[in-house]
Design brief:
Number of strands: 4
Strand content: 15-25%
Structural class: alpha+beta
Number of helices: 4
CATH architecture: Orthogonal Bundle
Radius of gyration: 14 Å
Distance between the termini: 24 Å
Number of domains: 1
Length: 90
Amino acid sequence: MKILSEKSIIRILQSATSSKNAFDLSRECDVSLTTVYRQIKKLNDKKLLIVSGSIDSGGKKHFTFKSKSNVYCKCACSNIDISPFIKLKD
C-alpha cells in the first residue's frame, strides 16, 4: 500500500468517487495533467481504478476513471478495504 502514501494519488482517489476524466481530475485536485496521467497509470496497474472508455466517430478516445472502495488481494487477506484512505475531508 506504499502507493497510498503519495498526496496526489490520495487526491485523485478522493476526487474519483464518481467517474471523471483526466482533465476534471487535474482541475479538481490541483495537480498537473501530466501528473494525473502518471498517477492514473500507477493506480490502474494496482487495480485501484475502474477505467471506462469509448472512441467517438472521429476516432477520439474518451476515458473516465472511478476509484474502487476495496481491492482483491492475492495474499491471505483476500480483500483490502481502501475506503479509509479515500474518505473525503469534512
